[in-house]
């Protein structure tokens, strides 16, 4: 088996190859002067099973992924498994207003047409999986987060809002720590008001856990309240660390920010490769 990584996942691709005992396959990936992308797979993959690791975020990564998949088909790969660690556009799986595109379906269809099977990681909703038109599976990214967080021995797991309750409850059970759910009122797309309710955190290591950290507003509000309540250490942890706009500055209230390599960046602290390898 070969593992091929797009530009979004060089580290994760190498880690996955090591986990599965596969060969890592290099790719020439460049742009022409007019901005169009050029892709060439460097190994002879004819007759071999190939796993591709690439996000559909940001936008240009979608074109890169499609070109890699087309190159593998053209090269005669026996089978193609596509791993999308973070699926961009997954948050619009239906129309909310007349005239909108179902973005998740628009992205999933061409990827599925070039793949024999597709794996996502902690995708926004399982409904997205039906859009690929091929065998699919969503990999639970929570277990690797919990495995990493055990080293901090947290005294409390905090869900930043009601929507994260189930996700955080499973983590709290694994970490043998109590769970607290924050209340949240959204003021606008970028502003939220958070309330902590009754909770004792003095001197504790507290983990605020969510599947995605985007602008960081909700997490920052929760972190500030926990610090004011006397928490000894506040950690912000997630699977998908987008950290857009001014998220890094907002989250400075937390003692550390911990995310996986579904989106590789400065806050990547643990790898999702073992979970992917187990699913494969």
- Chain-averaged pLDDT: 93
Tally of individual helices: 8
Radius of gyration, CA atoms, in whole angstroms = 20 Å
| Succession of helices and strands | EHEEEEHEHEEHEHEEEEHEHEEH
- Structural class, from helix and strand content? alpha/beta
The figure for the number of domains is 2
Strand coverage percent? 25-35%
Corresponding CATH architecture of the largest domain: 3-Layer(aba) Sandwich
**Poorly predicted parts:** none
Label the overall shape: elongated
Question: Within the largest sheet, what's the order of strands?
Answer: 2-1-5-6-7-8
Separation, N- and C-terminal Cα atoms: 11 Å
The first-level CATH class of the largest domain is given as Alpha Beta
Report helical residue fraction: 25-40%
Largest sheet descriptor: 6 strands, parallel
Number of extended strands? 16
Describe the protein in words:
The protein has 280 residues and is α/β, with parallel strands linked by helices. It folds into 2 domains: 2-139, Rossmann fold, CATH 3.40.50; 142-270, 3-Layer(aba) Sandwich (Rossmann fold), CATH 3.40.50.2020. It is built from 8 helices and 16 strands. Helix 1 links the parallel strand 1 (2-5) and strand 2. The model has no long low-confidence stretch (mean pLDDT 93).
């Amino acid at each position: 088996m070969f593992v091929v990584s797009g530009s979004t996942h060089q580290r994760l691709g190498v880690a996955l190859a090591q986990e599965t005992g596969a060969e890592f396959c290099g790719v020439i990936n460049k742009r022409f002067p007019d901005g169009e992308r050029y892709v060439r797979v460097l190994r002879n993959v004819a007759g071999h099973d190939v796993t591709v690791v690439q996000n559909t975020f940001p936008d240009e990564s979608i074109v890169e992924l499609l070109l890699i998949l087309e190159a593998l088909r053209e090269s005669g790969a026996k089978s193609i498994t596509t791993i999308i660690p973070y699926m961009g556009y997954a948050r619009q799986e239906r129309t909310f207003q007349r005239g909108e595109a179902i973005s998740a379906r628009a992205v999933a269809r061409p990827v599925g047409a070039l793949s024999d099977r597709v794996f996502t990681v902690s995708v926004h909703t399982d409904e997205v999986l039906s859009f690929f038109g091929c065998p699919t599976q969503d990999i639970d990214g929570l277990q690797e987060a919990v495995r990493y967080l055990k080293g901090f021995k947290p005294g409390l797991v905090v869900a930043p809002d009601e929507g994260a309750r189930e996700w955080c409850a499973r983590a709290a059970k694994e970490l043998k720590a109590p769970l607290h759910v924050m209340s949240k009122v959204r003021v606008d797309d970028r502003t939220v008001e958070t309330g902590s309710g009754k909770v004792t955190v003095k001197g504790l290591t507290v983990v605020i856990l969510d599947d995605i950290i985007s602008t960081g507003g909700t997490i920052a509000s929760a972190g500030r309240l926990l610090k004011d309540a006397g928490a000894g250490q506040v950690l912000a942890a997630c699977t998908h660390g987008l950290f857009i706009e001014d998220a890094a500055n907002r989250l400075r209230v937390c003692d550390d920010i911990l995310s996986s390599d579904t989106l590789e960046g400065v806050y990547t602290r643990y790898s999702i490769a073992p979970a992917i390898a187990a699913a494969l």
